[in-house]
Write the C-alpha cells for this entry.
Amino acid sequence: MTAPSVSQTPVRPPYDPELGALLAKSPLPAVLTPDMIEPLRAAPFTAPIEEVLATRDLDHKVVTLTAPDGDVTASVFTPRGRTTPGPGIYFLHGGGFIIGDRFTGIENILDYALEHNAVVVSIDYRLAPEYPDPVPVEDAYAGFVWTAAHADELGIDPERILLAGTSAGGGLAAGVALLARDRQGPKALAQLLMSPMLDDRDRTASTLQYASTGSWSRESNSTGWNALLGDRRTSDAVSPYAAPARATDLSDLPPAFIAVGSAEVFRDEDVAYASRLWADGVQAELHVWAGGFHIFDGAAPTAALSQASLTARDAWVRRTLTA
C-alpha cells in the first residue's frame, strides 16, 4: 500500500467532539516554526509553580546537579511533614526538546507525591537548538543517577524510583532507561511514558495524518527534531538514546505505561514501541485514547476522555508504587 504524499490530506481519525471544540479555541499555533521558539519560551503557557504549590502541601527545594559539560537546575518536591521513606518519581518535562521547563506539566506528578508519600525530582535539561543531542539525554541521565545516588538523604526507597516523562520528556525517559541498562546504571522501577516522542524518521501514517493540525503537528515535530539532531536527522548517525524507536534491543528494560491519543502524530510510533517491548519480553500497558490530541489530558483535564485517561494512569501508578 502506497503512503499518501505530503501534499495530500489523508483521511484521519477525527478528534473527540468535546476535545475538538476545545482545540479549536486554543491560542497556540498548530504549526511551530523555528522563529517561534524564543517567543514561546518568553511566554510561559503553564501556571507559575508558586500557584501550583499553593494548593498542595509540598516543600520545594532547588538544587544544582553536575552534568557532562555543564550544570543543570533541579527541583525536589517532598510532602510536608513526611517522616518515613517512600518511592521517588523522576520527571522529565515536555516541549519538543525546544521549550518548557522543569515545572511544565508537573501538576499530576505532584499529586502522586501526596498520594504515595513520594519525592519528586524534576530537572531543567538543556534545550535545543542551543544544546543539541546528546546534551538533553545526557542531562536527563545525570539527573536520574543523582536521584538514585542521593536516595537516602532524599528519603527515597532506591528500589522504587519511577521514571516519568511527557512528550519529549517521555522520549528522554525512554532514552534514560536504555542508557541505564547499557551503562549498568540505576534501574528504574518502571517507565511512565505519556505520549512519548520517540522517532525522528517521520515515516508513520499518523505523522502524515496530523500535518498542520492538533496541539503538536507534523511540522512542529520536524521543528523539534531538527533542532535536536540537525543534519543527522533521519540518518544512520542518530543514537537510540536520542530516538528510542531506533533501538534494536528493548530487552531488560523496566515495565512501561504508554498512553497516546489516536488523533496525534505520535500514535503509531508509540504503539510500535509498546509492541516491541512485548516482543523483547518487557511488560507494557498501552492505552490509545480515541480522538485524543497530543497531551489532551493535560490541556483539558476536565473533559470526559481526559478523565478516563487520568483514571487509567492513576490506577497504574497506584499499582506500581504500592506493589
Q: What stands out?
A: The chain has a mean pLDDT of 95. The domain at 65-322 is CATH 3.40.50.1820 (Rossmann fold). The beta strands are 58-67, 70-79, 86-92, 119-123, 156-166, 190-194, 256-261, 284-289. The chain is about 35% helix and 20% strand.
